[in-house]
Amino acid sequence: MLAYILKRLLLMVPTLFGVLLLTFVVIQFVPGGPVEQMVAQLQGRDSGGEGAAATGAGYRGRQGVDAARIEEIKAFYGFDKPAHERFVQMLGQFARLDLGKSFFYPKSVWELVKEKLPVSISLGLWTFLLSYAISIPLGIAKAVRAGTRFDTLTSLLVLVGYAIPGFVLGVALLVVFGGQLQWFPLRGLTSTNWDTLSWGAKVVDYLWHIALPVTASVLGAFAVTTMLTKNSFLEEIRKQYVLTARAKGLSESRVLWKHVLRNAMIPIVTGFPAAFVGAFFAGSLLIETLFSLDGLGLLSYESVMRRDYPVVLGTLFLFTCIGLVTKLISDLCYLWVDPRVKFD
Length: 344
Description:
Elements: H1 2-28, H2 34-46, H3 50-55, H4 67-77, H5 83-95, H6 109-144, H7 149-163, H8 166-180, H9 199-218, H10 222-237, H11 240-247, H12 252-264, H13 266-269, H14 272-281, H15 285-290, H16 296-305, H17 309-337
């Protein structure tokens, strides 16, 4: 086992290197980098003020900005060095867990991630807990009542919810419950008077704000887990050891919860680490934008659009490391759930 874990950890290094190298190479060919944006702003002011830059009328190559000033801008953003030197320097920073500083925010990438993380944790934690807390019991109930009207009706409802995009549902929730009925707030994670509220009022205010975003995020997560739980239980129920347990006179509840549950939950439990971490760091950009929640999804999108390369590469490095470690933990969970598994 130790040899397997060590091998997996060593394989993470070339995987991480390949992801960073591929992304860095792609970035070199993307137009509209920070140097071009700064030159465009200077040309906009020189050719008619900031309004010209906003309308795109100011950018015409290097016209209006001398070569010395352009070199200063390149040095400011670190583009005065060849691409391979910048890549090696970036790898050295990442090896020291230094993710760099943003081009457009007066903060480091670590500080930006820490600021946005509470929003993503709020969405991810509630989405994960609610989806599994509802999907697993529902999947078991569907397996026990397979082929009945309950099974057909719940399958229809789950699949309809899966087919509706989260942002479409979010718009409908905002229009109905936030606009017409005014039962829930339209934006933000807390009210403006959050600091003056009591502890109990803060909890109520937080749940009041998070209700609609979580509903829009969690509805589509039911289908996969529910159907996976149902099919896994059906497969185990039809096996010989279940017939033997029933023949011995064991009650149906004892057969299901003591014998079938452990084996049927193997594919579900082993996916817990990836689903748990993924719910935090793979938040919906559209949900965050729709409900004005400043989380990691919105940060990643804005950094790509603004060509904030330190934020793009820094968050990519962080999320890739978390993803690789989570995948290893998921594989090791097979041993915890089923000791018969041997990786060799």
